[in-house]
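Run log, item B.
One chain of 282 residues. Sequence copied directly from the ordering sheet:
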Amino acid sequence: MIHPAGVRRKILAMVVLLAGAVGARPVYGDPIFQEGVTVDGTLVGTFTVDTYEEFSVVGTSFGIAIQGGFNPSSYALPPGYEYRWIQTVATTLPAYSWQSPGGTYVDRTRVDDGSGEFILARSHTPFYNDGIVTPDGLYELPFADNPSRVEGPTAFHGTWSLSLVAVQARTDLGDFNQPEPGVTRAIYQLATFVWGFDLDAQLRAVPRTPIVQVAPDPLALAQILADDPDVATFGNNAWDIRAGLPSSPGVIPEPSSYLLAASALVAVGVPTALRRCRPRAA
């Protein structure tokens, strides 16, 4: 069953978003974090965070608000590719009952498939915010999140890893954000930004600073997708996680980092830490 905190979290997030829409807090502020995204020596754009603050409901929940977005540079993705976000999360208090504290999962709102477990990713897409891309006048690829938990715990640690990715289009005319049955599409992980929050001694949510840009890790991201129990969305060979920039049309791309790393593991033996008895429930 879904954890009660998960239900409350989604409701509270919607309240926060609506509050922002009616002016309860500024929609934008001065940049708190701003950093260029450079891939293979090419500046592809800039990621900016302009809101990063506690946003708790006294007596009900503790949490934070983060907001910003990505603006491309003069570099243009090859035809057939689009920018999206993929976000993963690891916390001491997971949002859903089938997740384990400290485990890392794709951050997607989950819906019930009838079993009561709330495993299926909403809109059948791995991309954050259902893959919806609506430029807001300030950012071409906006980003906002309002993670929270119901008051009661005396300790909390949460880490969110937001990856900017370039996604290959479908060959049919279906929803770009959904997997295409029988087709493996490339996802190029361009940059990852790590943020989060903790609960201090006064039980206040404290955003973790500084926000850090880390090197993409396509092998790790591919493993997280492979471990997700929503096989229709994340598995079935739907996605090939790669590093670098998408190849130009007509050029045969190099093998992905995931495939190269997997080959290396086969050659030298799989380390104990990577052996799994069964796919982890995400």
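Observations after the first pass:
- The longest strand covers residues 185-199.
- Helices lie at 4-21, 218-227, 231-234, 257-268.
Flagged for discussion on Thursday.
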